Amino acid sequence: MTTPTKNEVTLLAHANNLSLDPEFYDGVCSNLQLLRHYAQLVEDMPLPDRIEPACEYTP
Amino acid sequence: MTSSSTLLSPRGLLAGSTASIAQAVRSQQISSYALIHSLLEHIPSHDTSLNCVTRLLHTRALAQARTIDETIKNGRDPGPLAGVPFGIKELFDVKGEITRAGSRILANDPPASHDAALVERLIQAGAIPIALTNMDEFAYGFATDNAHYGITRNPHDPARLAGGSSGGSAAGIAAHFFSLSIGSDTNGSIRVPASLCGVWGLRATQGTLPTQGSVPFVHSLDTVGPFADSAIGLRLCFEALAQTTLSLPSPTKLRVARAGGWFARNVSPPMEKALSELAHTLHADQTVTLPHIDRARAAAFIISASEGAGLHIKTLRSRPHDYDPAVRDRLLAGALLPSTVIYQAHCLRRWFREQMHHVFKTTDVIIAPAVVGPAPRLDQPLIMVDGQTVSARANLGLYTQPLTLAGFPVLSLPMKTDGLPLGAQLIAPPGREDRLFSLAEMLEENGHTQPIFRHH
Q1: How far is the alpha carbon of B292 from chain A, nearest alpha carbon, in Å?
Q2: Do the first three CATH levels of B4-242 and B255-445 match, i.e. the same topology?
């Protein structure tokens, strides 16, 4: 898991047509780091290749 | 003979529960108008230090109370919740009011032209809409700490958090402002504040209660539902909201297990004591371990951040400074996630739901803590997780958020305790709210839960 840098966050934001004010960076970086921790947990989960995503809720 | 003195405290606030109010109003022992008038008069001075309420619905509440009184005088049925005052998280549409959802972004929208489905159904059942309640902006938080409209304080100790994001709806019941309320629960926003404020709450089976007329947050995980001052009140409210009548199974026939593993770690000593006593009362000798709870929670985090960002992306581009900074930074970070991990989170959701169904083959109800311990202090909003001191605001959903991923119904109840409130989660398979209410009402009737009106 990499710690996001300001340069990286700027590039990612531009790719999604977002421009971040300097005052946003610390908060966005710390939240993105937290999300990357969770993303790692999700991606490391061994799941069957053919499992379908549950995009709609079914009981 | 019930009189206003048994339903209203010397402070002019509520002193009786949902069922006793409905019974007294129906039998004309107190007029709905007198009860609502007293609350409207006395809530403002008591709410100054708590900040549960963002707007009182004076005109609407008094008009509705008059209608209920007239209905009863004319010999017609006023409904099962006759005259019962309820609070509304301000993300629900209320006709004539601006639906702000705790934001400045929506504060200049036109007023709602219709009531949200849940508001409409409670009014149909005879309940009186009395107040809009405070929340985290756009329901993205566990604290009800709102940069625009202030923090909601815990009525049991105003130096502590009420929890969120539906904090005003939970705290308003604990403060005796109203008997019932409605909120939303995406990752725990009903169960967390219910637990910290010592009231009853329900995250119903996903899709059971209509979200129509409410501001969305995370389409894949959003639910809306009730808080109440009692188990019976919660059932009456749920029945009105779901437009159904439950037939409750015998509580003695239900197999109850306690959740181990993730749900047994990080539990504070008072929570452990209360939960062990609850498990003993319910003969929950068996412990079940739900698989990969850390990953289930992670998937709920990823889906919430990405879908929340997707919903807000245009406003994040055009008006980022109008957001609560804490919410804005969470949403912006969500907008920077790769799509591949979002897809994988939804695959994990499918897998986790199947595992939850498997666990329920050997048990009917599972009990688990709702939060790690009592409400954190405002000046020290920290909790211990895995030996680390971490932000309470980000981690109050430790035990609620993973269950969100499966969409199963969960009832949060106030356990018997000597100190600050502590909530337990009762979990059932989809559509089996009847099991949860069966146990809840048995526990309440036998004095195994903490009554709301202990001081009267």
Answers
A1: 9
A2: yes
Contacts of B343 in chain A (CB under 8 A): 53
Six-digit token string for B244: 């159904």
- What ipTM, to 2 d.p.? 0.97
A59 contacts on B by Cβ (under 8 Å): 205-207, 407, 430-431
* pTM for the structure as a whole: 0.97
Whether residues A18 and B294 touch (CB distance < 8 A) is answered with no
Whether residue B455 is predicted with pLDDT greater than 50 in this model: the reply is no
C-alpha dist (Å) from residue B269 to B289, B323, B378: 21, 38, 21
- What is the residue extent of each domain of chain B? 4-242, 255-445
B348 and A16 within 8 Å at the Cβ level: the answer is no
Contact B321 A21 (CB under 8 A): yes
3-state class of A30 per DSSP? helix
CA distance B230 to B179: 9
Q: Are residues A51 and B325, on separate chains, in Cβ contact within 8 Å?
A: no
Fold held by B4-242? Amidase signature (AS) enzymes (3.90.1300)
Residues B411-449 pLDDT 10s: 999 999 999 999 999 999 999 999 999 999 999 999 999
Q: Would you name the residues of B annotated as active-site residues? A: 89, 165, 189
Q: Which CATH superfamily includes the segment(s) B255-445?
A: Amidase signature (AS) domain (3.90.1300.10)
Where would I find the beta strands (DSSP E) of B85-146? 85-89, 128-133, 145-146
Give B241-278 pLDDT, tens digit per residue: 999 999 999 999 999 999 999 999 999 999 999 999 99
Please tell me if residue A32 touches chain B, with a CB cutoff of 8 Å.
yes
